[in-house]
Amino acid sequence: MDPVIFLIQCLNAVQYGLLLFLVASGLTLIFGIMGIINLAHGSFYMVGAYMAFALQPLIAQHLGAGFIATLLACVALATLMGYFLEWAFYSFLYRRDHLQQVLMTYGLILVFEELRTLVIDNDVHGVPVPDWLQGSIPLGGVMTYPAYRLFISAVCLLVAGLMYWVLTRTRLGMMIRAGSSNREMIDSLGIDINRLFRIVFAIGVALAALAGAVAAPVSSVYPGMGNAVLIICFVVVVIGGIGSIRGAFVAAMLVGFVDTFGQVFFPAAAGVMVYLLMAAVLLFRPEGLFRQG
Amino acid sequence: MHMKLRTLLPLAALTGAAALLPLALSDYYTGLSIKIMIYALFALSLQLLVGGAGLASLGHAAFFGIAAYFVALLAPESGAGNMFWLLPGAMLGAMLYAAVTGALALRTRGIYFIMVTLAFAQMAYYVFHDTSVGGGTDGIYLYFRPELRLGELVLLNIDSPYGFYLFTLACLLLTWAFLAMLMRSRYGAALTGIRVNEQRMRAAGFSTYGYKLVAYIVAGGLAGIAGFLYAAKDGFVNPELLAWEQSGLVLLMVILGGTGRLWGAIVGAIALTLLQELFQSQALLGDFATHWHLPFGLAIIALVALLPRGLAGLPELRRPRPNKGKTTPAAPVL
Amino acid sequence: MKKITTCGTLAALLALGAGTASAGVKVGFMLPYSGTYAKLGEAIENGFRLYVEEQGGKLAGQDLEYFKVDDESNPAKAPENANRLIKRDQVDILIGTVHSGVAMALAKAAKGSDTTLIIPNAGADAITGPLCSKNIFRSSFSNWQPGYAMGPVAAEKGYKTAITITWNYAAGKESTDGFKESFEKAGGKVVENLTLPFPKVEFQPLLTEIASIKPDVVYTFFAGGGAVKFVQDYAASGLDKTIPLLGSGFLTDGTLEAQGDAAKGILTTLHYADGLDTPRDNAFRASYEKQYPGMAPDVYAVQGYDAAQMLEAGLKAVNGDVSRKDELRTAIRSATIDSPRGKFTLSKAGNPVQDIYLRQVQGGHNQDIGVAVQALADPARGCKL
Q1: Residues B64, B50: Cα–Cα separation, whole Å
Q2: N or C, which terminus of chain B has less Cβ within 10 Å?
Q3: CATH among 3.30.1330.30, 3.40.50.2300, 3.30.9.10, 1.20.120.450 for C144-270+358-376
Q4: Alpha-carbon distance C188 to C180, whole Å?
Q5: Do residue B280 and residue C70 have CB atoms under 8 angstroms apart?
Q6: Domain C2-141+277-350 is found in CATH 1.20.1270.10
Q7: E strands, C160-303, where?
Q8: CA atoms within 13 A on the CB side of B54
């Protein structure tokens, strides 16, 4: 393989991995802190994408603002939605065992899909790439790399950095990390565990929705997008270790590389590669690569 | 084998009623009943893992699908295949995959186990979906329903809808009886012990890994029977049979029906299939029937929320047990 | 006991919903009414009903009773969905479906119950190939046809090497195989067949591969969301400036709005196009737009419309008596359909023998710029009829 082509493929892998990390981090946070298996996480990704599709023309028309404003609006709405969902539905799941959570959130997927059909529709839609990101960057005279994909990677890195800062340098982060290690302890220390869970859940939803919204211009907006990303996310979370953000990052990168290079070198087995990776990791480290934290 | 007359009589009556049911139903509803029984068998096989061994598998559809593909691929195109080797062959194929994947998956626990089983099912799914082994995404046909032959003599022909119905019913009842006996045996008792407290069983000297692996393989084989029947029913097999949605659906049936009793799986299969039919029925919901996923999803949530012990736990809610303090769930021996 | 009563009540309720018998012809639609293909299912049914409306609400003097089942484009549920129409609603004619996997199950069920089936989209070659049958027809195309038609076009333009890229499933493979067959017959060479698992849409690694191999032209088959994304990604990677993109018509059908500028100038082949400007097509389009305001007539509507025409041809020959199945089917098979796409006949295997148009994306339309191959018949390899 040509070294330039190899580097470009690495770039593809990293970009894919970063986007996966954004979605998976929300999932691992929810699972790690709250102990809830949430199958509907893919639906939040889809909701984010459809929100971007629906809001973008409105924001451009009424506020005259651009894409960044749309992204922020999606995040804000998703956070509110997450806050409400936790209060209305997910708070009842804590006492249930994992299987019941799986099934109730499975039912939630169906509800979300149908609500989306009723509120918007079943079509495939595109979200236009903002003008200031339209260009492509030439790479070694072979091909050009779309600037927007670099933007996606930048957003993901920014959010990753933000998460790191919040988790290690703020009180909220401290409470989150403590809650993931020992829930009862922080409850007995007087921290309002319900509020904390609600915030964490809202953050998780916002992360997934942001991923969907920022990826919408390149991945297009279509009904099956939630389910497609859900399985891969679970694989990433499990490989990385449930509850570990660091693990989710490393695992997402691994998956990105395996998937990208798998497609090039083993096209027939491309679909299986990621699962082989997961099986291999779990056989040597049955609890994932990193522990909680 | 101590079966009280009190349990035996209603069971016999039920069996008799079930055997006579197609006489009162149209062809379509007979077909629907067969489908329900196939899924009930499928759910029963999973019940051995979930209710019996305490292992939640999200990849059980793999064994169902592998068996179905085995039949469709190896049955001759020009005439009816021979069930004598096609059925055990299908089961063996499924059990082989269960043995290999179970040996590896059982090294993990809890949520990781769930995910590994999902991964192995996805791998099987992709083999049939992406390669030309099974005809790819469009699926393949099983041209003739297999019959039971010994040499030239045809012992059993299940071509007629009623014949196939009775055959499926027989398979279901035999599987149920087999599992009931299994759970009452010493093996079953050990399995229950492992489900309740594995560490204690290990301390007592049991090789828990071996017991769980046996359960996993047997469950795979039984799911293989269901897969065989599915292929024989409509003669169409496609990769979606191994998809995680199928695994999720059968798991839902087991949970909905209740893991405390073996027949919970059967009830769950009946309830869920009828629920789906209900919500898709245009007569009741008119045009809204195309959006049936919405009431169905809500129904799933409501049922799981309101019936933590599943439908099989309903009688318990009405007659509170005398020793309510006991938290250890008994083995599902029926 | 409780189990039986509950089951009994539910079963009774369902029996009530089975639909009452009445005179006329029972037509069953098995189409996707939900999911990604819902729009296509809607267009097909609209086209069908439009033709019936134009005939005054009846076909060959017969009242039609419609039954609908949503197949959700899910092959796993296809046999039971097909049975709903065949056994529960007992339809005389089946119209369906979009997804090839579902169509395979539908074809098997139709064969088993000897029901006449007209397929208004699913292009799986096998259905009019090894699995052909006297009672199965198509008003659409076989996957091979548009692909085969593009080969001579590519060769004529002087391209010597090509890469094909598509999803790893039957529709994609059949389309690219068709292209490869005619392109190599005309002296070209397909140097690489790139595939990715269906329905993944991460094209970047394969686009990079194309960039490194540098063929003269790329032929592709994608549809729906994948088509939107691929065209956008192709343009964003700058490849469209050096390596032209050719495709089966579904690459740009129904997706132009979402694709925007990225699709400008792309050449595709399909059995229908915009701007055909024939009296028949103009009348159809005007009629469709009037009946369904806000919906643009597309190839799916035409396929549904022609399915109704095919059914009428059969019904006319038997004077509406659907029990004369053989005569009905022979009549359909020997009919000439006056379709908005141009007149077409059916091959022995039941597939349309039709002109395949060459189209170019101009001004948000797939503008017809000529006929790629005239009266192209699918070879129906493996069909024993």
Answers
A1: 16
A2: N
A3: 3.40.50.2300
A4: 9
A5: yes
A6: no
A7: 161-167, 189-196, 217-221, 245-248, 267-270
A8: 21
Q: How far apart are CA C68 and CA C79, in angstroms?
A: 15
The per-residue pLDDT string of chain C (385 residues; one tens digit each, 9 = 90 and over) reads: 455 544 444 444 444 444 444 468 999 999 998 877 888 999 999 999 999 999 999 999 999 999 999 898 888 889 989 998 999 889 999 998 999 889 999 999 999 899 999 999 999 998 998 889 999 999 999 999 999 999 999 999 999 999 999 998 888 999 999 999 999 999 999 999 999 887 778 888 899 889 889 999 999 999 887 888 899 889 888 888 899 999 999 999 888 887 888 899 899 999 999 989 999 999 999 999 999 998 889 999 999 999 999 999 999 999 988 899 999 999 999 999 999 999 999 999 999 999 999 999 998 899 999 999 999 999 999 898 8
- Separation CA B53–CA B49 (nearest Å): 5
Report how far residue B37's alpha carbon sits from residue B44's, in angstroms, rounded to the nearest whole number: 10
| Nearest residue to B281 (alpha-carbon basis) of C71, C84, A182, C233 | C84
Phi–psi pair at A89, nearest 5 degrees: -130, -55
Contact list in A for residue C199 (CB cut-off 8 A) is 224, 228
Q: How many residues does chain B have?
A: 334
The pairing of beta strand C245-248 with beta strand C217-221: parallel
Give the one of B238, B271, B281 whose C-beta lies nearest to C101's C-beta: B238
Residue to test with chain A: of C202, C228, C233, most A Cβ within 10 A: C202
List the domain boundaries for chain A.
Answer: 3-122+168-284
Domain boundaries of chain C, sorted by first residue: 2-141+277-350, 144-270+358-376
CA atoms within 13 A on the CB side of A254: 24
CB C382 within 8 A of CB C155: no
Same topology between domain C2-141+277-350 and domain C144-270+358-376? yes
CB contact under 8 A, B28 and C80: no
Chosen for mutation from B126, B128, B137, B276 (greatest number of chain C CBs closer than 10 Å) is: B137
Which residue matches tokens 């920014």? A158
